Structures are given as structure tokens and as C-alpha cells.
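User: Second chain of the day. Same drill as before.
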Amino acid sequence: MNCFNEKTDHALMKEQLKNKGDEIKNDWRIWKKLISETEVGWSTELGTISANDEWWKSKIKVCF
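Assistant: Same format as last time:
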């Protein structure tokens, strides 16, 4: 924690660092799950997920 605070010049508490780490882990799991689907890829040019319209429509139906 002290090393992080010195390098970033931020005074974060241990709980704040743990919460951020947990959030990043969860985001990583979601990203890995999305990328593992066969219709999905990663656009390095845009820095976004690339998928066909049918895939997006099916995901929108599930989420909304």
C-alpha cells in the first residue's frame, strides 16, 4: 500500500485498494467471458469488442 501511494501520489486506504482490485477482477472475468464466445472478437484499432448485429441483438434481449 505504501509503495502504491508513493508511486501514484495518492493516499488510498487498504480497503479502497482491495475494492478497486475486486472491481478490476470482475471486469476482467466479464471481458474474458465475452471474448471466448465464438461470434465475438476484439478490434485493436477501436479498442472495443467486435461482433455481428445478431449477436448484439441477442445480448440486448437478455439484458433488457
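DSSP finds three helices and two strands in the chain.

User: Great, on to the next one.
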